[in-house]
# Entry
Amino acid sequence: MINLSEVNWDFNVAGSWPLPIKIATIVLVSIFVAGVGIYYITIDQLNELDQFEIKETELKKSFKNKQKKAINLVDYREQLTQIEVSLGEMIKQMPTQAEVANLLIDISQTGLASGLEFRLFKPAATIRKDFYSELPIDIKVIGKYEEIGLFVSGLASLPRIVTVHNVAISPNKESKDKDSKSKDSLLTMNAIIKTYNEESGVIKKKKKNRRK
# Structure
């Protein structure tokens, strides 16, 4: 049995230490060096490895999504073609600049033909959108419920696109009819009528840019 009190612990004479102490010292030093290496090197590498694994998962997910899109590319192109055809048909229903004046006349005549009385017919400033312009018209008409319905239906039947917005209907209080029953049957409708005008050449430019 080794008497530790008789061992000279000076590292300069470590070569003369008993073999069990040498082995124990080597093991302790190895453990210490390994611990330092793990703390300063391996932990950072493990953290970096975790980041790479997260990035790998994200890339796989992105790849799967792109793969699905690539598989459905033909369907997407067919849908795009259908949308462009539908859009082209809608654009054909938009009045040209030269036709706007006639369309305004058609709108007012539709109202008069329905039996309505116009109190306001005021075209507002043009509102430019992406590939078309909105042409809003503020209107105020007086008439019976059936006449208002006939007017709105008539607008939908016009050959050019016309939509009705911000509709507000209330009992008419300004009727000149002295019969109270007739007063009650008349309504006032305030609304904004919109038609649309294509921005010339914008659609063709968009198609050309997309093909590039």
About this structure: The domain at 96-202 is CATH 3.30.70.60 (Alpha-Beta Plaits).
